[in-house]
């Protein structure tokens, strides 16, 4: 059990959560680990909640992360990062995008969106690092780079080197040309730097 | 899907259970593969269609897909068929007689159970079909096994001349894990041999086949007792031993690494002697099965003392956080406390219709018409039962909207005499099982208004092609059904069939209002494509002029997820009534300009977006 690393990636359908987790799984396999990746995603394409579980280590049995055992929670959306806090170990860390995506049930006035998800997580005494992946992606010229920014964000919180993950990310864009490879490299490094800077500020 | 170069033999590839089965199907030399899409099974056939040297098809329903596979297996070719759990309810008519004839070419039927209900209307346990039809059931526990058991399935199928059920669950179909793959072996079809006593199931012929079916079952049981797919891990902590199959096996191993386990790869016919062997090793036996107590009941009937559903839930997945406390309680130990804190309380985020979905206009309209009883169906339009529309009253099974609507009409009480009965169905669903229901409505002179929402795709499962959109599984041109002509030939009067654009709300509203008043069957066909398929074309996005927005919230009633509230307020009307106000913006980066929200906007506050930069649209979070 202790040899298995548990990574939880959360967000909403359409954000690229499942693809990001798959790339993380590919990196783990490239390092020679056994790995299992699974989703709890009810009709996720329609804007629902997605939580993607990645477990890797010498031999992975159950694909699901048991509540209270995730080492890292990578949150693509603020409230979703909050929703899954109970999955983390007491010493686990949350790396979260500060973006807020408000669902129709909130717009209709049926429910409230929390005013300060980051504050709520901090108040619960949990380790959390927040960054604005959406703006970082926009500044690089394309909102779709957000996914790579998120992967850069987790790169220094894995039990293997960031370069392994970067290589797996870039492999996806190899056939799409040098320009996209370069953009994604920059997005990855920007995500990495954002988390590094936020952690330095906290320390 | 376009063909791709298959991964080379001996390579280790990250594959979902569905991809692993598809690989096994290809390596086994299967010639014919057929399916109807359904979560969590869909990707099996999608991936099969990318392999060379194999014929794949989207069939109109699961029964037809199984029949296609049966024909190929009768011809001596290897065949494959897959479906979600409820698909077998449809296909079972063929299955229950197929078990008498058996097959010549190998036939594997993969059935994907949605344990945990991620995207289904029930949680039925497909392992029952093995008992019901006297067929072998294989249960993989991960992607590697899904691949290997597919190959083993063809060997068993041809050796015993029996169709084999590969029972999977969402936690196998959709979990990705490394798979070491092998080489493809071509399979030579033996050819169709005429043999009416075997292939023509008349009462006399079938009667002679029944004893053979039971002989085969006995042989399969003997095979299951010795098969390597069923194995005992003796463990060291003998207080509790487990009998488990499928993903439950992994959960048991994760939770109790030292416990003895009998892993059932072939769970039907049940290897009872192996179960006794495990029972002799341990103080107590617990059967861990998702979801019905099938193995448990058979073992109890055989006089073996086991525990099962007395201590484990009868629904959902049996993950470690379920198993550990249950076994601790059984052993009288302290229930292990989970390290986690309680989940933080948050708003729900139910699945919703997409931005600019053509169904939005339909449900917005239905939410504005009074006195309706709306019989719904299986597909994206089931989401119409949710907010803000609340415009769907029943959902049972695929195609059921038709018959249920007729029953609601014929069975109406005095209290419902002024209600109008509507049925809502999609294009693929209509072709799957709905058209027979419409024929029944016509034939029996029902008073039902049918809304046939043709979005040219099987939407909920990811936009697969079907006979309604004129493309086959390879994306190539195929004959396209003309829904208006089809309905007319089923007997709906020509003047009662209307094809409307669901983005033109006044026309849609008027057509629905008029047709529900007509005391006979009408069909209103909407004709705009799903926004997730290539037939959909984006238009110029809209934005809200903040100064003009009065906060009436009419646009929010459309239910498009691109509309967001910027601030709320209250207003006291002349009547003294206080109303809530919601001022809005449109997320321009995702708006595709369908114009639905423009139509109910009273103050004309929604206009085409003018990009700030002349070159590129500013996208994302803070704009509009």
Question: What do you see in this structure?
Answer:
The complex is a heterodimer of chains A (203) and B (624). Chain A has helices spanning 17-30, 78-83, 104-107, 117-123, 133-139, 146-154, 162-171, 178-202, and strands spanning 5-12, 34-40, 49-57, 70-75, 88-97, 127-131. By secondary structure, chain A is of the alpha/beta class. Chain A has one domain: 3-Layer(aba) Sandwich (Pyruvate-ferredoxin Oxidoreductase, domain 3). Chain B has four domains: 12-226, 3-Layer(aba) Sandwich (Rossmann fold), CATH 3.40.50; 230-330, Rossmann fold; 358-526, Thiamin diphosphate (ThDP)-binding fold, Pyr/PP domains (Rossmann fold), CATH 3.40.50; 542-608, Alpha-Beta Plaits (2-Layer Sandwich). Chain B is 32% helix and 18% strand. Chain B contains 18 helices and 22 strands. In chain B, helix 14 (358-368) packs across helix 18 and helix 15 packs parallel to helix 16 (427-443). Chain B starts with 11 loop residues before the first strand and ends in a 16-residue tail after the last strand. Classes of the chains: A alpha/beta (203), B alpha/beta (624). Chains A and B meet through helix 1, strand 2, helix 2, strand 5 and helix 3 of A and strand 8, helix 10, strand 20 and strand 21 of B.
């Amino acid at each position: 059990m202790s040899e298995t690393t548990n990574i939880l990636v959360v967000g909403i359908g359409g954000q690229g959560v499942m693809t990001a987790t798959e790339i993380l799984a590919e990196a783990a396999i490239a390092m020679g680990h056994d790995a299992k990746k699974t989703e709890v995603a009810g009709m996720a394409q329609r804007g629902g909640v997605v939580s993607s579980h990645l477990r890797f280590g010498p031999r992975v049995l159950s694909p699901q992360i048991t509540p209270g055992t995730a080492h890292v929670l990578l949150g693509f959306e603020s409230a979703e990062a909050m929703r899954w806090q109970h999955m983390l170990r007491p010493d686990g860390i949350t790396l979260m995008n500060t973006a807020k995506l408000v669902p129709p049930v909130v717009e209709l006035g049926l429910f409230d969106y929390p005013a300060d998800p980051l504050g709520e997580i901090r108040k619960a005494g949990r380790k959390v690092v927040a960054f604005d992946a959406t703006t970082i992606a926009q500044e690089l010229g394309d909102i779709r780079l957000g996914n790579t920014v998120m992967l850069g964000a987790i790169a220094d919180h894995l039990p293997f080197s960031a370069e392994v993950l970067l290589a797996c990310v870039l492999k996806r864009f190899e056939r799409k040309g040098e320009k996209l490879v370069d953009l994604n490299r920059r997005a990855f490094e920007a995500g990495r730097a954002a988390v590094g800077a936020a952690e330095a500020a906290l320390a | 899907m376009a063909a791709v170069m298959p991964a080379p033999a001996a390579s280790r590839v990250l594959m979902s259970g569905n991809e692993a089965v598809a690989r096994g199907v290809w390596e086994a030399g299967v010639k014919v593969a057929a399916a109807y899409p359904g979560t969590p099974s869909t990707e099996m056939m999608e991936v099969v269609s990318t392999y060379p040297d194999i014929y794949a098809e989207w069939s109109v329903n699961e029964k037809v897909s199984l029949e296609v596979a049966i024909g190929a297996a009768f011809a001596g070719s290897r065949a494959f068929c897959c479906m979600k759990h409820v698909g077998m309810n449809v296909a079972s008519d063929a299955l229950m007689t197929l078990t008498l004839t058996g097959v010549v070419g190998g036939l594997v039927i993969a059935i994907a159970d949605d344990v945990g209900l991620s995207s289904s209307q029930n949680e039925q346990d497909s392992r029952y079909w093995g008992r019901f039809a006297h067929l072998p059931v294989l249960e993989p526990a991960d992607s590697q096994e899904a691949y290997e058991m597919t190959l083993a399935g063809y060997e068993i199928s041809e050796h015993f001349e029996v169709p084999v059920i590969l029972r999977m669950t969402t936690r196998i179909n959709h979990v990705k894990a490394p798979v070491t793959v092998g080489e493809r072996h071509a399979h030579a079809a033996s050819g169709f041999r005429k043999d009416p006593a075997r292939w023509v199931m008349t009462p006399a012929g079938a009667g002679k086949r029944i004893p053979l079916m039971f002989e085969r079952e006995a042989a399969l049981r003997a095979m299951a007792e010795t098969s390597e797919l069923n194995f005992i891990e003796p463990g060291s902590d003998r207080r509790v031993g487990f009998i488990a199959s499928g993903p439950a096996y992994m959960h048991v191993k994760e939770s109790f690494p030292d416990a003895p386990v009998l892993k059932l790869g072939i769970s039907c016919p049940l290897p009872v002697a192996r179960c006794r062997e495990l029972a002799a090793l341990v103080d107590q036996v617990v059967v861990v099965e998702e979801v019905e107590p099938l193995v448990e009941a058979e073992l109890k009937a055989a006089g073996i003392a086991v525990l099962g559903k007395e201590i484990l839930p009868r629904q959902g997945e049996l993950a470690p956080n379920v198993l550990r406390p249950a076994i601790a309680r059984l052993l009288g130990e302290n229930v292990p406390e989970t390290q986690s804190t309680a989940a933080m309380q948050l708003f729900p985020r139910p699945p919703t219709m997409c931005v600019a979905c053509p169904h939005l206009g339909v449900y917005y309209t239905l939410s504005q018409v009074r006195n309706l009883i709306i019989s719904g169906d299986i597909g994206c339009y089931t989401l119409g039962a949710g907010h803000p529309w609340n415009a769907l009253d029943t959902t049972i099974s695929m195609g059921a909207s038709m018959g249920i609507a007729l029953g609601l009409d014929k069975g109406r009480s005095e209290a419902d005499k002024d209600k109008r009965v509507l049925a809502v169905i999609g294009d693929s669903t209509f072709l799957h099982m709905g058209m027979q229901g419409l024929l029944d409505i016509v034939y029996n002179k029902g008073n039902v208004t049918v809304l046939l929402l043709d979005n040219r795709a099987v939407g909920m499962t990811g936009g697969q092609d079907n006979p309604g959109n004129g493309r086959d599984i390879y994306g190539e041109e195929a004959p396209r059904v003309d829904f208006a002509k089809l309905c007319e030939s089923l007997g709906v009067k020509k003047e009662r069939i209307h094809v409307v654009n669901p983005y033109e709300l006044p026309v849609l509203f008027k057509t629905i209002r008029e047709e529900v008043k007509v005391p006979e069957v009408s069909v209103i066909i909407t004709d705009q494509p799903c926004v997730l398929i290539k037939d959909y074309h984006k238009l110029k996005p809209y934005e809200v002029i903040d100064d003009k927005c009065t906060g009436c919230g009419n646009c929010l009633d459309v239910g498009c997820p691109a509309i967001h509230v910027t601030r709320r307020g209250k207003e006291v009307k002349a009547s003294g009534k206080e109303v809530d106000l919601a001022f809005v913006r449109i997320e321009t980066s995702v708006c595709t300009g369908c114009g639905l929200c423009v139509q109910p906007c009273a103050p004309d506050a929604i206009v085409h977006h003018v990009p700030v930069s002349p070159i590129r649209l500013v996208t994302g979070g803070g704009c509009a």
